[in-house]
Design brief:
Order of helices and strands: EHEEHE
Helix content: 10-25%
CATH class: Alpha Beta
Structural class: alpha+beta
Largest sheet: 2 strands, antiparallel
Radius of gyration: 11 Å
CATH topology: Alpha-Beta Plaits
Number of strands: 4
CATH architecture: 2-Layer Sandwich
Bound molecules: iron/sulfur cluster
Shape: globular
Strand order of the largest sheet: 1-4
């Protein structure tokens, strides 16, 4: 299954990725990162279809999609 990896040090918690994901696979972490933001993360295993929308919209280039 495809999956995403979020670089916590780049993510600014804007939530753009959560809104564009067609499968609603992304949620915000309840704990904040070293940089002081609540980073995005994959919410459900085997949810991602590898469409790349989240990586495309992320203004901070924090998401890598693995197909
Ligand atoms: S690659 Fe597509 S399906 Fe996977 S988390 Fe990103 S937006 Fe959602
Ligand atoms: S779009 Fe990028 S910066 Fe915004 S919450 Fe998602 S991963 Fe973080």
């Amino acid at each position: 299954m495809p999956e995403i990896q979020v670089n916590d040090n780049r993510c600014k918690g804007c939530k753009f990725c959560t809104t564009v994901c067609p499968k609603k696979c992304i949620e915000m972490s309840p704990t904040f990162s070293a940089t002081g933001y609540y980073p995005a993360r994959l919410a459900k295993k085997d949810c991602c279809i590898g469409c790349g929308m989240c990586a495309m919209i992320c203004p901070d280039l924090a998401i890598t999609v693995y197909k």
